[in-house]
């Protein structure tokens, strides 16, 4: 239906614009939009893809690459990538993003920084002016299990009284990330969300926090598929 079509539209447009024949080391993000990225890369044909290596941003991303019979690589082997394409939970007018809805933001940020070009793809629901306008689940924050209670308490006192541990649905207890850590979802008021880089710095200094789902000043472009079949590009 409309949302899946708009995800595919964003993904195909981004691949057509940014995954060129000369690009050999490709980062694949996580979530429900990136399967359309892989689909479009496969459509470029075996000849170009057999000379490429694909780096995952987590178990789901790795499965996508393996199931597409694309060559799997490791970021420790390829510390610099030509291009990484990833999803987003929300993107503001300055290309800052909330990520981590899929609890993959640590490896995603490593591959975003490793990429010469980093591009986001999403459906129209993610296209906002200010972070938090549509994404109400809060900022996903990866924490070491040992420290989660103290981090929660700290967040409660610096603007996120509703910060909470992300509990699993198909498993008893909290969600455990691909890095064996917990996720806290921390909603902050607009006054703090309108300066995401400042909030990111503040949060990164809290002991026990491994990575924060705010991606600031990193993207070259963001592509949003719209219900009417058009694509909005922010850069
Ligand atoms: O966890 C993430 O950051 C993923 O990129 C994900 O949140 C993107 O969401 P999607 O399923 O709407 O593509």
TrEMBL record:
Protein name, entry field: Ribose-5-phosphate isomerase
Keyword Nuclease: no
EC top class named in words: isomerase
Protein family per UniProt: Belongs to the ribose 5-phosphate isomerase family.
PANTHER family (UniProt xref): RIBOSE-5-PHOSPHATE ISOMERASE
Record key words, sorted: Isomerase
Any GO BP: D-ribose metabolic process
Leader sequence residues: none
GO cellular component: cytoplasm
UniProt EC number: 5.3.1.6
InterPro entries: NagB/RpiA_transferase-like, Ribose5P_isomerase_type_A
A GO molecular function held by the record: ribose-5-phosphate isomerase activity
NCBIfam families tied to this protein: rpiA (TIGR00021)
Reaction equation(s) it catalyzes: aldehydo-D-ribose 5-phosphate = D-ribulose 5-phosphate
Alphabetical list of Pfam families matching this protein: Rib_5-P_isom_A
Pathway: Carbohydrate degradation; pentose phosphate pathway; D-ribose 5-phosphate from D-ribulose 5-phosphate (non-oxidative stage): step 1/1
Ranges in a coiled coil: none
